[in-house]
UniProtKB/TrEMBL annotation, chain A:
It is found in: Cell membrane. One of its GO terms (biological process) is amino acid transport. Its main location: membrane. GO terms for molecular function: transmembrane transporter activity. Belongs to the binding-protein-dependent transport system permease family. LivHM subfamily. The lineage of its organism: Bacteria, Bacillati, Actinomycetota, Actinomycetes, Kitasatosporales. The chain crosses the membrane at residues 12-30, 37-54, 60-83, 95-113, 142-159, 188-211, 223-251, 263-283. InterPro entries: ABC_transp_permease, BCAA_transport_permease. It comes from Kitasatospora phosalacinea. It is a multi-pass membrane protein. It comes from the Bacteria. This is Branched-chain amino acid ABC transporter permease. Keywords: Amino-acid transport, Cell membrane, Membrane, Transmembrane, Transmembrane helix, Transport. One of its GO terms (cellular component) is plasma membrane.
From TrEMBL, chain B:
Residues 8-250 form the ABC transporter domain. It comes from Kitasatospora phosalacinea. The lineage of its organism: Bacteria, Bacillati, Actinomycetota, Actinomycetes, Kitasatosporales. The keyword ATP-binding applies. InterPro entries: AAA+_ATPase, ABC_AA/LPS_Transport, ABC_transporter-like_ATP-bd, P-loop_NTPase. One of its GO terms (molecular function) is ATP hydrolysis activity. One of its GO terms (cellular component) is plasma membrane. SMART domains: AAA. This is ABC transporter ATP-binding protein. Signal peptide: none annotated.
Amino acid sequence: MSTVVLLACTGLGLGALYFLVASGLSLVFGLMDVLNFAHGALLSVGAYAAWWAATDGHLGFWLAVAFGTVVGTAASVLLELVLIRPLYARPRDQILATVGVGLALPALLMGIWGSDARPFPQPAALSGTVDLLGATVPVNRFVLVAAALAVLLLLRLFLARTRYGLIVRAGVEDRAMVTALGIDVRRAFTLVFAIGGAAASLGGALAGLYFGSVNPSQGTGLLVFAFVVVVMGGTGSVTGAAVASVGVGLVQQFANYAAVPGLGAAGLGDLSVVVLLAVLLLVKPRGLTGRLA
Amino acid sequence: MGTSAPVLRLDGLGWSVRGVPIVQDVSFEVAEGEFVAFIGPNGAGKTSLFNLVSGIHPASHGTLHLDGADITALPVPARARRGIGRTFQTSSLWPGLTVAEHVRLAAQAAAGPGASYRIWRRADRYRQQVEQTLERTGLADRADDVAASLSHGGKRKLELAVLLVGEPRLILLDEPMAGVSAEEVPALVELIRSVHREQGRTVLMVEHHMDVLLGLADRLAVMHHGTLLALDSPDAVTADATVQGAYLGEAL
């Protein structure tokens, strides 16, 4: 029983991380049809900025996380304005450009700080464990879940209650018609990039807490699963991404635990995610949600 | 009519695709508050003409004036802001948004290019405007339903509501009865009539139901092979022998 609880909490923490990356990815793709392969690199930017602030910058943990989020958000806005915006009429070039940034940014981080994982300072308050139903669960799992829930709640409030949110929801369904009304949708694009970048870089900063260290390829590794989550949840759907994130995180953790010793540590977990994706797409080809929620 | 400046003026307007003329040398004026209906066989260029007026197609020849200003070179959003609103043959809504949200989005758009992005104002600032429009179009009881759940007639009403909230100078309706069930047609006709008569809107409409048009239109425009064959009062047009031959075929 205690093992099940521990695995569930770890899976939820991982799912929370996936959600932070996937929510922005999903909105960006849903609204703009932009496949942002640089989204994982934004996570790495957030992670390294937070790590730098917490070590060299001597900031406290929460300030470091805030700093990482701000830097990642700024990087995301810069990416949209400088590279994505001039290429809206050329989707293939756009994909190549984001792939390029997705490769270059981790390489840049590697060039400056090396390819080895850097230990992420763990604040005393969050490095302990909690006894839950007989299991000893690290506190940082709950930090991630709480952050993901907060982001989910804020995103839903933003989409449901604000004028920007209304434009984004309408734009996800039919962008041309929003333009036909006389609304400049490109301003919503920049905002959605900022939101996506903020969520991903917050995820990056908290990934340092979850994994205990940061390394240049962390973001790219998480991006693969974030794409799986986006496809499963339905593009443009924040709630769908949340449900799919939890599913992927849990399945991966439980499958890893059940892994046959000869198969390698992470093999079965990753494989089971692909199987889960395939089964879902067979049953519901359009993902969990057909529409934005 | 004739005393005040026309709301819309077309001078030799034409549109060609790879040298093939789709709309040729169309000239006419529409006065404030007038209702002009466009008839003609399929492929006569009615929708293409609407696309030229709303800006979807760039004119190959001629000019287009709205309230005396040359709008020939303006793109769609700019013409929308100047007061040209239109509906399409196929339903053009956001299926997952509620009825009220559709009208609110249109109200935001109508408030000006920057209004949608002023983040510090509450989203429900337009509530009153939205309520009035929904009341006017008979959609008040469906305000919180998603557009996908409406009947064809309800969707057409919602398209009109989206148009009307922007207080357009000129309304283009492209086959507003298309796909609407027979029992929903009278209510829709009544709505269009009230938009024209009670609110004094200037309306251009493409429609195949002649019986509907004869009660609504001030003038009938007959299109044939991309040209304007006749533009006159419904009585004069239906009596015209050329028109009979070209389109109406059998007697009305």
